[in-house]
Here is the input.
Amino acid sequence: MVFFVPVRGRQSEEYVARQRILTGMRPTGPLHLGHYVGALENWLELQHEYDCYFLIADYQALGDHLDEIERIRRSVIDVAVDWLSVGLDPERSPFVVQGYVPEHAELTLYFSMLTPKSWLDRNPTLKSEMQQLEDSHETITMGFFNYPLSQAADILLPKANLVPVGEDQLPHIELTREIARRFNRQYGEIFPEPQAKVGRVPRLLGLDGQAKMSKSLDNAIYLSDDAKTVQKKVRRMVTDITGQNPRLSPTDPGIVENNPVFLYHDVFNPDVEEVKDLKERYERGKVSDGEVKDKLVAALNAFLDPIRERRAQILERPGYAAEVLEEGSRRERVIAQETIAEVREAMRLVYT
Ligand code: ATP
Ligand code: MG
Here is the structure.
């Protein structure tokens, strides 16, 4: 569905089409730099051009954190505070709690009747996440296995056209498109086929050199970390992913390529000249790891300072984040109920 809104400053009969976005995060912990460059930075831009709905997927977190309800409860609020701190505007773009809008569960149920199990079996992101659970001897629940489907329902419920996400989510968006196609073929054109939009950094690697900075892997710098914590974490950062080329002294020629510290410099240090100089000296054995890391600490703290200031202001208003979530969910529920009514009608789940 496309909405038409007046363009300010033009003739009142001129309208532009405004498309919808739904995107979200799991309340499994506080947000980190990977979320910022992989998703939030994109959301901040897009909230001016699209009708955005930002979802906190609490149902989805239950799939692998059912025994950690307190963590989920705290994280729902933490994620909302993180979103406010980076400058997302809940007046413009409702913040929605999945569980406050049970139509998300209802659409998930219908989609699970429509979707062959093999579509989930072959999903590479799901496969690798299930492997991680298995490696740590955790049970794979049906709820976890089904989460990509619940994500498809989240996106299609408000009929989103665009989904800004990190690279790991691309198979889920493809699945969403397949489900939309199958539903529309069977029951009539109800859903759009949404496009994915990957952020500036498709996947930020972890402090430990693992492929993805992740709340679950505890290899992250959080948006809520203070300056001292950032310094401590960066000082412990690996400089070599392979572990085969340890640099023992500042006079050893170092390797810049795929060096996590330099990868972070490229993403977070706006002083391009400084980064270039550090790289040159590193390769010639003319700079210590310590100096390269200290400059990264300074860049990261400069990046995080405005976020910290906004957070301090938000935390002065206890209960504000919870209010934002209630109001945003109420707004999305109106649209969700319209879609569900259409779906039930199309599926002939109306008994007269
Ligand atoms: P969990 O480990 O609990 O799944 P997560 O860190 O993967 O947590 P999600 O809530 O699953 O976070 O993902 C939220 C969004 O942030 C997704 O669009 C995801 O692609 C993006 N994202 C998460 N981590 C990174 C990262 N390291 N680099 C880029 N994007 C990321
Ligand atoms: Mg994830």
